[in-house]
Design goal:
The chain is mainly alpha-helical and about 80 residues long. The protein has one domain. The chain is built from 3 helices and 2 strands. The longest helix is centred in the first third of the chain and has 31 residues.
Length: about 80
């Protein structure tokens, strides 16, 4: 039983670190290179402006649903699903 819980925690921890890395990228890294991003445009707006106004918010919503789905798969794989 302990080995099963340890395997579950290892996968959950890996997912958590990946989720935090993606969050860090969309919340910090993109804005560090804002002046470089302004050379490109999206829907007529400079790319850095678009990422501040809409892009990061969309990425965060997608990240929430993706992370939740992956965690449900991990839980079911190790017998901790809602149906078990």
């Amino acid at each position: 039983m302990a080995n099963k819980a340890e395997a579950h925690w290892n996968k959950t921890r890996s997912l958590m670190f990946l989720t935090l890395a993606i969050w860090f990228f969309f919340s910090i890294v993109i804005f560090m290179f804002g002046s470089s991003l302004n050379n490109a445009s999206f829907l007529g707006y400079p790319l850095a402006y678009y990422m501040c106004a809409q892009g990061s918010l969309g990425a965060f919503v997608i990240l929430i649903f993706w992370s939740s789905g992956r965690q449900n798969k991990i839980d079911e794989e190790h017998g901790y699903g809602e149906d078990d």
